[in-house]
TrEMBL record, chain A:
Source organism: Streptomyces doudnae
Keywords: Membrane, Transmembrane, Transmembrane helix
Keyword match Transmembrane helix: yes
Protein name from the UniProt record: CbtB-domain containing protein
Entries under Pfam families matching the protein: CbtB
Regions crossing the membrane: 20-39
Source taxon at top rank: Bacteria
Automatic annotation (TrEMBL), chain B:
Lineage: Bacteria, Bacillati, Actinomycetota, Actinomycetes, Kitasatosporales
Organism: Streptomyces doudnae
Protein name listed in UniProt: CbtA family protein
Stored InterPro entries: CbtA_put
Keywords in alphabetical order: Membrane, Transmembrane, Transmembrane helix
Keyword Membrane assigned: yes
Annotated TM spans: 9-31, 65-88, 100-119, 139-158, 170-190, 210-228
């Protein structure tokens, strides 16, 4: 395949995987924990007892598409 | 240096997620809440007596502060995850500028994270859904979401593999087709859930689901545009003088 004009958009250089990995692991898990509390806590499973978390984010849970009671 | 770039992108991703979350919150409040209220009205007129004992959080709080908490945390969390995915995708998925990469990634995330799971297990308003099956429904929804994201990543890697042999165009077509076929198989084999009460108003359900889809469309489009702009500034800083005067001119 012929390479066309190489200039119009500058393709950024890839970031090395080793530089991404520690951020991805630590913040990836942290973000998933946040999503768990918005989307599923006190529904099918519960870390905190009671219904307060569920009731507080109730409307968001329905409107963001998560299964809710 | 590179680690600092990842950190900068991550922070900007979470901020862009917060901004996009604010836009989505406005849409959720204006388009979604009326149908949540209608569904709760239906639920209460059909209550079997033992359903509602004590109201822990009032409706006026649920539909404002509660909704805002949920949508904004969702925006920040997905903003962070999308920024990390962006670090992997940047410069690896073809010849796209930082801004174009951000919008492309957002579009794919909208499909993989929301639209594909939604087609099998759509959003339901209050009164739709049996509380005895919450465990099963939660498992299936998250399974569908994880599966769809993994398949999207696999399709991207497949496209990259095929590109040298087929060319970018046909490699992309083949990868998307593979994604569609495997997703279709998952739809066919995963269990069906239909817990809509027989006399639930169809228009309320339809409007609620359209609103849910619009919220996500707003969130991910907003994220793509805001994060794209921030990422462009991190990755391709222009000379200080030129950037100020010629800011609106885009590629």
């Amino acid at each position: 395949m012929a390479q066309t004009v190489a200039q119009p958009t500058a393709t950024p250089a890839p970031l090395p995987l080793k530089a991404i990995a520690p951020w991805a692991v630590f913040f990836g898990i942290l973000m998933l924990v946040l999503l768990y509390f918005v989307g599923a806590e006190q529904g099918a499973t519960a870390v905190v007892s009671g219904e307060d978390v569920h009731e507080w984010v109730h409307d968001a849970r329905h409107l963001l598409g998560f299964p809710c009671h | 240096m590179n680690s600092a770039t990842v950190r900068n992108l991550l922070v900007r991703g979470m901020l862009a997620g917060l901004g996009a979350g604010l836009l989505a919150l406005v849409v959720a409040y204006l388009l979604g809440e009326p149908y949540v209220d209608k569904a709760i009205g239906f639920e209460e007129s059909h209550a079997h007596g033992h359903e509602h004992e004590v109201e822990l959080v009032s409706r006026s709080l649920q539909s404002t502060a509660g909704l805002a908490t949920g949508v904004l945390v969702y925006g920040v969390a997905f903003g962070g995850i999308a920024a990390l995915a962006y670090c992997f995708a940047l410069g690896r998925i073809g010849r796209f500028s930082p801004r174009a990469t951000a919008l492309l990634l957002s579009g794919c995330a909208l499909l993989a994270v929301y639209v594909v799971p939604f087609l099998k297990y759509p959003a339901n308003p209050p009164a739709v859904g049996n509380s005895d099956t919450i465990g099963e429904r939660t498992t299936l929804y998250f399974l569908m979401m994880v599966l769809s994201v993994l398949l999207a990543v696999a399709a991207t890697l497949l496209g990259r593999r095929l590109a040298p042999a087929l060319g970018t165009w046909w490699a992309t077509v083949a990868a998307v087709a593979a994604f569609a076929v495997v997703t279709g198989l998952a739809f066919a084999f995963l269990p069906v859930i239909n817990e809509v009460p027989a006399d639930f108003p169809a228009t309320v359900l339809w409007r609620f689901r359209l609103a849910a889809l619009t919220i996500q469309l707003t969130l991910w489009t907003g994220f793509g545009l805001i994060f794209g702009e921030l990422a462009e500034r991190v990755l391709a800083p222009r000379p200080a003088g030129a950037a100020r005067t010629a800011a609106p001119a885009a590629h």
